[in-house]
Write a structure and sequence with these properties.
The protein is of the alpha/beta class. It has 15 helices and 12 strands. Pfam families: Aminotran_5.
Length: 417
């Protein structure tokens, strides 16, 4: 029988462990998991404490296999094409640091790329002859415009003599929180002969990915600890058979590495063996995947919608088909610090944007016991709110009032003090 307690406070109090005064509006950054999953993790932690060697050597590989088998259907891929890594950033690094870049090679990404992934590319470019091309996106933007910009940049890079090795893009952007046309971008990559790497940090448990195997990206990673309700950190890493030979090592290189001239005889595939045991870390989040999926099947048949006031949206509405809402605050971000006659307290110069952002965030934490994901984008200050089953309409009405109060205070210059 499917159990469906009401979403909002009852769901929160029944299944989650938030502090009574805390309002969790930022699920997308670090996730949250129910007590049922916490109890499962505690069980594994106890087993590891009682018999550490036995648990790690004999039990852990089988338990990880059970989790791989449980999560494979959610991606629509064979179980031998998925392993676990601690987080999406690790998966992205694993792909990029396994590829051999040569003179003239180019990686294309969008300006909305996750900061850690962009820095990874810069780090690699310090050691290898890699060029990075960023495609500017200014939201709201429609899917067809994204695809057109992608194809145009590929054409221009190739016309200039660049060899585009790989394109990297998201399933759902971190900021603003909107859905990307990742399926169409993968198809475009196939047509253009470019490897595709999907940073699906906000993917599994958030949007439907059961057609991932049919779409067929070259590399894919997605955090389970965000929207699938596993403990932190846990991410599923998918590499189809055709590309597994490109992933020669895990990060860090460990016992699963195979010497080219003297490979071992393995029970499991080299890819699975590579990631089965990397270092001595807490693997219990990986083992909680089946219990997290069980929880979702029982009580998470739908997702609470995030209401907003001035919600950023495109004409088609496709970009809003995710669990984020992006609220535009009533500030105009000027291109220059110098004030004009028409500028008011709502007009913020570039040297003060960071100060305003930090003041809004810290004040919300200290005075209202909540965390607001805030960032400047395309001349506006946006707040990204996460819809979740433990939230209700009153939570968004509450944060709307608090945002109005914060903005009113900021207009008086309080953030400058």
């Amino acid at each position: 029988m499917t159990i469906k307690p009401p979403f909002g406070r009852v769901m929160r109090d029944t299944h989650f462990s938030f502090h009574p005064s805390y309002t969790p509006l930022n699920h997308g950054s670090f996730g949250a998991y129910p007590r049922l999953v916490q109890e499962e993790q505690d069980k594994f932690t106890k087993l590891a404490a009682e018999r550490p060697d036995t648990f790690i050597v004999y039990d852990l590989p089988n338990l990880i296999d059970e989790s791989r088998e449980a999560v494979a259907p959610l991606l629509g891929v064979p179980v031998h094409e998925i392993v676990f890594v601690p987080n999406a950033t690790t998966g992205v690094n694993t792909v990029l640091r396994n590829l051999k870049f040569e003179q003239g090679d180019v990686v294309i990404h969008f300006s909305t790329v996750y900061g850690a992934c962009e820095k990874t590319l810069s780090s690699i470019a310090e050691m290898m002859p890699l060029q990075c091309e960023s495609i500017a996106l200014s939201y709201a933007v429609e899917d067809e415009d994204i695809l057109r910009s992608f194809r145009e940049r590929v054409a221009s890079v190739r016309e200039a003599g660049g060899n585009i090795r790989l394109a990297m893009f998201d399933t759902v952007l971190i900021f603003p929180g909107v859905r990307m046309p990742w399926e169409d971008l993968v198809l475009a990559c196939k047509e253009l002969g470019i490897l595709s790497l999907i940073d699906g940090a906000h993917g599994i448990g958030h949007i439907d990915l059961t057609h991932l195997g049919t779409v067929g990206p070259d590399f894919f990673v997605s955090n389970c600890h965000k929207w699938l309700y596993t403990p932190r950190g846990c991410a599923v890493f998918h590499v189809p058979i055709r590309n597994q030979h490109l992933i020669r090592t895990c990060l860090p290189t460990s016992h699963g590495y195979q010497y080219i001239d003297r490979p071992e005889v393995l029970v499991k595939s080299p890819f699975v063996h590579l990631f089965e045991f990397v270092t001595t870390i807490d693997y219990t989040p990986y083992l909680c995947v089946p219990k997290a999926i069980e929880f979702r099947k029982k009580i998470c048949a739908r997702v609470a919608e995030s209401p907003g006031t001035e919600v950023m949206r495109g004409d088609s509405g496709i970009m809003n088909q995710c669990c984020f809402t992006n609220i535009k605050l009533p500030f105009t971000l000027r291109a220059q610090d110098k004030l004009s006659v028409s500028d008011t307290g709502d007009s913020i110069g570039p040297s003060e944007v960071s100060r305003l952002q930090k003041w809004l965030n810290l004040t919300a934490c200290k005075e209202f016991d909540t965390y607001l994901e805030i960032a400047p984008r395309a001349g506006a200050m946006l707040v990204r709110l996460s819809g979740q089953i433990y939230l209700a309409l009153e939570n968004f009405e509450w944060v709307g009032c608090k945002l109005k109060e914060l903005c009113d205070r900021a207009r008086t210059g309080e953030f400058r003090n």
